[in-house]
Amino acid sequence: LPKVGHEPLPPTVGRNVLGRRVLYLPGFFTYARHIVEVDGKKGLFRGLTPRLVSSTLSTITRGSVKKAFPLEDMEHVSNKDDVKTSLRKVVKETSHEMMMQCASRVVSHPLHVISMRCMVQFVGREVKYSGVFSAIGRILKEEGILGFFV
C-alpha cells in the first residue's frame, strides 16, 4: 500500500489558458482504458460491492438512530423569540445530526476500508483481497478489529 501516490501513466504536455506549456495528468477515461487493458472490464468494478454495502449500512444506521432517538418536535422560532431559544434549537439539532453521523460512520467504515484496499491493490498488483468476506477474515487475522478503523 505504500505506492498509493504512484501514477501509472505519464503526464501529457498541453497548454493552459494563458498559452503556457504545462503537464496534465491523464483524465478519467484514460485511466479507465488503462485499467481495462491491465485487468479487463472487471477491474473497473474493484471495491464496488463493499462500497455499496457500506452505503446501505450507513443509510440503515442513520434511519435506526433517528427512530431510536427522535428529535422532539420544536416550535418554529420566530423573529420575536430570543437568541437563547434559537441557539438552543440549533445546538440540539446539530448534536442530533452529529450523533447520527457518528453512529453511521462507525458501522460503515470497516466496509469503506475494505473497498479502498480492494481498489488500491491494483497499484501494487496484489491479489490479497478477493471479496468482502475473505477481506474481513484476512483483516481480522492480520490486524485484529482495529484494522477496520485505520
From TrEMBL:
Membrane topology: Multi-pass membrane protein
Pfam families reported for this sequence: Mito_carr
Chief subcellular location: mitochondrion
Keywords: Membrane, Mitochondrion, Mitochondrion outer membrane, Repeat, Transmembrane, Transmembrane helix, Transport
InterPro entries, per database record: MCP_dom_sf, MCP_transmembrane
Annotated GO CC locations: mitochondrial outer membrane
Localisation per UniProt entry: Mitochondrion outer membrane
Stored Gene3D superfamilies: Mitochondrial carrier domain (1.50.40.10)
Domain of life: Eukaryota
Solcar repeats: 88-150
GO terms of biological process kind: positive regulation of apoptotic process
Family: Belongs to the mitochondrial carrier (TC 2.A.29) family.
Protein name: MTCH1 protein
Organism (species): Crypturellus undulatus
Lineage per the UniProt record: Eukaryota, Metazoa, Chordata, Craniata, Vertebrata
